[in-house]
Specification:
By secondary structure, the protein is mostly helical. It has one domain: Growth Hormone, Chain: A (Up-down Bundle). Helix content is 76%, strand content 4%. It is built from 17 helices and three strands. The protein has a three-stranded antiparallel sheet. Helix 1 packs across helix 7. The longest helix has 37 residues. The protein is globular. The two termini are 28 Å apart. The N terminus is likely disordered.
C-alpha cells in the first residue's frame, strides 16, 4: 500500500443538487459549434490539396498543429482551473477560434494555414476542460448522462465536416471558411451566459463549503493501482483516436480512389461514421449509469473490432453500413472514459478531462501525420488495412478496475 494522500475537492455535495438540464443543453450546443469549427479543417483537405497543391504529409501536419495544440494545452488549462476556476476563459477561448477561422479563409500558403489553425487549437484547448467542468457542475448525480450530453455536442459538430465540405467548401472554396466566424461569434455569446452561471455556481459552492465543510478523499490504495488504470485509459484513447483520425481525415480519399465517386459523395461515408459516433456518445453515458462504466468502455472498443477488420474489403454499400456500426460502438465509450478518469482521481475534474480528451486530440494529431506519411509511402489501401487492426488493442480494457473497486479506493472526509 502506498503512502496515504488527501485530495481536496471543491465541489457541491451532489445529493443536495439537481441536474441542470438547461445548462447541459447550452454547453452541448456550444460544444457542437466549437467542434464544427475544428471540423472545417479536415473538411478542407480535398480543397487545399487541389487549390494549394499540398501533399498528404502537409495535410497531416495541418491536422497535427490543430490537435497537438489542443492536446498539450488542455491538461494545462485543466490543472490551472482546478486550482482557480476561470469562467470567462470559455468565451475568450472561442474568440481565439473566431480569429483563426478568419485567418483560414484568407490564408495563401502552408505557413499561414498553420498559424490560423494554431489559434483555433488554442480556443479548443481552453474550451474542452472548462466545458467538461460546466457539465460536471450541472450533472447532479447523473454524471455519465451529463458528460454524454456535453460530449454528444462535440461529436455532432465533428460529424458536420462532410456536410460542410459538400454544401459550403465545394461551391465556395477556401473562402467559405469565413462563414464560420459567425458560428464562432454565436458560440461566444452563448458562452458569456454560461460563464455568468458558472461564476454564480462557484460563489454558491464556496458558501456551501463555508457552511458544511470541504469534502476531501483519503486515498486507500497505492498510486501504482491508479497509475495503471490511467495508462490503460490512455492506450484505449490511442487506439480510438488513431482509428477515428484515419476515417475522419483520409477515408474520403480512399472511397474516391476505390469506388470512383466525387468529393461531395465521398463525404457520405465520413458523415455516416461521425454521425453514428455522436449517437453512440449520447447513449454511452446513460448506459454507463445503468450497467457500469467499465462494462461500456470494454464494449465500445471490443464490439467494433471485427467490423473494422472487414471494412477495407467490402463494397461501397456494405462499407457505409459497417461505418455506421463502427462509429456507434467505438464512440459509446468516449464520454464514459472521461467520467471514469474523473472518479479515479477525485477533485481533478479539469485535469482528468483535459488529459483524456486532450490526449485523444494529441494522439489524433500524431496519427494524422504518421498516417499521411504512410499513405504517401505505401498507398491508401494498405494504410487502411493496417489501421483496421488498431481496435484489437482495446482488449486491455478488461484489466481496468471495476466500478465498485474505484469507489473503495478512497475514504470520504468532510473537514471544516
Amino acid at each position: 500500500m502506498g503512502k496515504d494522500s488527501v485530495t481536496s475537492i471543491h465541489k457541491k455535495d451532489t445529493t443536495e443538487y439537481r441536474t441542470v438540464y438547461s445548462i447541459l443543453l447550452i454547453i452541448s450546443i456550444c460544444h457542437l459549434l466549437n467542434d464544427s469549427l475544428q471540423a472545417v479543417i479536415p473538411a478542407m483537405f480535398p480543397i487545399l490539396e487541389q487549390s494549394l497543391g499540398l501533399t498528404f504529409t502537409q495535410l497531416g501536419f495541418i491536422a497535427f498543429t490543430l490537435n497537438m495544440t489542443s492536446s498539450v494545452m488542455q491538461p494545462v488549462v485543466g490543472l490551472i482551473t482546478d486550482k482557480r476556476p476561470m469562467p470567462y476563459a470559455l468565451p475568450i477561448g472561442l474568440t481565439s477560434s473566431m480569429l483563426g477561422m478568419f485567418g483560414l479563409a484568407f490564408a495563401s500558403n502552408f505557413i499561414t494555414i498553420l498559424i490560423a489553425v494554431f489559434f483555433i487549437g488554442i480556443g479548443s484547448a481552453t474550451f474542452h476542460p472548462e466545458g467538461s467542468r460546466v457539465a460536471y457542475l450541472a450533472a447532479g448525480t447523473r454524471r455519465g448522462f451529463a458528460q454524454s450530453i456535453y460530449q454528444v455536442g462535440g461529436n455532432a459538430g465533428q460529424s458536420l465536416a462532410p456536410v460542410i465540405t459538400a454544401l459550403v467548401l465545394v461551391p465556395l472554396g477556401q473562402f467559405g471558411a469565413i462563414w464560420f466566424t459567425f458560428v464562432a461569434g454565436i458560440s461566444v455569446i452563448l458562452l458569456l451566459y454560461i460563464a455568468h452561471w458558472y461564476r454564480k455556481t462557484e460563489s454558491e459552492k464556496k458558501k456551501h463549503e463555508q457552511k458544511n465543510g470541504i469534502i476531501t478523499y483519503k486515498r486507500l490504495v497505492s498510486k501504482k493501482v491508479i497509475a495503471n488504470a490511467i495508462i490503460i485509459l490512455l492506450l484505449l484513447s490511442f487506439a480510438r483516436s488513431w482509428y477515428q483520425s484515419a476515417i475522419a481525415n483520409f477515408y474520403a480519399f480512399y472511397v474516391i480512389q476505390s469506388y470512383g465517386i466525387t468529393i461531395a459523395k465521398a463525404q457520405i461515408y465520413t458523415f455516416s461514421f461521425l454521425l453514428m459516433g455522436a449517437i453512440g456518445t449520447f447513449f454511452g453515458g446513460p448506459f454507463a449509469d445503468r450497467f457500469g462504466k467499465r462494462a461500456i468502455i470494454i464494449f465500445s472498443i471490443v464490439a467494433p473490432t471485427p467490423l473494422a477488420i472487414l471494412l477495407p474489403f467490402m463494397n461501397e454499400l456494405i462499407a457505409i453500413v459497417l461505418l455506421c456500426f463502427i462509429g456507434l460502438f467505438l464512440m459509446s465509450g468516449f464520454s464514459v472514459s472521461v467520467v471514469y478518469a474523473q472518479e479515479l482521481i477525485p477533485g481533478k475534474v479539469g485535469t482528468m478531462s483535459g488529459l483524456i480528451v486532450g490526449l485523444a486530440f494529441g494522439m489524433g494529431a500524431i496519427g494524422a501525420v504518421f498516417l499521411g506519411s504512410l499513405i504517401d509511402w505505401i498507398g491508401l489501401f494498405a494504410t487502411i488495412v493496417i489501421v483496421s487492426f488498431l481496435p484489437i488493442l482495446g482488449f486491455i480494457a478488461f484489466f481496468l478496475p471495476k466500478d465498485h473497486e474505484i469507489q473503495s479506493m478512497y475514504k470520504r472526509i468532510i473537514s471544516s
